[in-house]
Write a structure and sequence with these properties.
By secondary structure, the protein is of the alpha/beta class. The protein has one domain: Rossmann fold (3-Layer(aba) Sandwich). The chain has helices at residues 24-36, 87-92, 96-107, 119-125, 140-145, 174-192; strands at 12-16, 20-23, 40-45, 50-55, 58-64, 67-68, 79-82, 112-115, 132-133, 149-150, 155-158, 165-168. The strands form 3 sheets. The protein has a 7-stranded mixed beta sheet with strand order 6-3-1-7-8-12-11, with helices on both faces. It has a 3-stranded mixed beta sheet with strand order 2-4-5. The chain has a two-stranded parallel ribbon with strand order 9-10. A hairpin with a 2-residue loop joins strand 4 (50-55) and strand 5 (58-64). The chain is globular.
Length: 193
């Protein structure tokens, strides 16, 4: 674990997930990076209770949900993270409050970090047009059809829009993804002070 810093100064970061199918490492490593940088991650899902993670397709952990998507307020959070896993964003994009929240965060200029299959949520929210991002390769056609530019890179930071999007392809990209999300989140916090 890295040394604790205070670069995120108690920022509230929403980790928006479905109640099942979250790729464990894509939740755990960004969560730890945010806590290590002094941020306050919160697990948000459509249903109260618990959310289940997977290690690829094998069940992994059950985690307590902090709040539900129907209670989300853009004003209450400073940034958002959407982990991947095939099932997680596919289920989540059917949840209207979650989709509205993502659209609201982007429109409000708040940074979003999205990995693997997570960009399906960006497509569903209609916030991909004119943006450059990466994802798990099977999403490239969805991203292009939504008006985005897909690239095959470990991490992409796109500021060509109302907010900054940080995207990565897969678990192997997590070190770069976590580095960039903490850097971008800290810069957005510093800009507001």
């Amino acid at each position: 674990m890295a040394d604790r810093t205070d670069s995120l100064r108690e920022m509230r970061i929403a980790f928006v997930v479905a109640n099942e199918g979250i790729e464990d490492v894509e939740l755990a490593q960004p969560w730890e990076a945010i806590e290590t940088a002094g941020g306050r991650p919160e697990l948000i899902a459509p249903q109260p209770g618990q959310a289940s993670t997977v290690n690829h397709l094998s069940p992994s952990r059950r985690l307590p949900v902090d709040s539900t998507t129907d209670r989300l307020s853009v004003d209450a959070f400073d940034a958002v993270v959407i982990p991947g896993g095939v099932a997680n964003p596919d289920r989540l994009r059917m949840d209207r409050p979650a989709v509205s929240f993502i659209r609201g965060m982007v429109d409000a200029g708040k940074p979003a970090a999205v990995i693997c299959h997570g960009p399906w949520m960006l497509v569903e929210a209609g916030v991909v047009g004119g943006r450059t991002l990466t994802s798990w390769p099977s999403l490239r056609t969805d991203i292009r059809n939504a008006g985005g530019r897909w690239v095959d890179e470990e991490v992409v930071v796109c500021a060509d829009g109302p907010n900054v999007l940080i995207t990565s392809r897969k678990p192997d990209d997590l070190p770069a993804f976590c580095r960039e999300l903490t850097r971008v989140f800290a810069a957005s916090q510093a800009a507001r002070v």
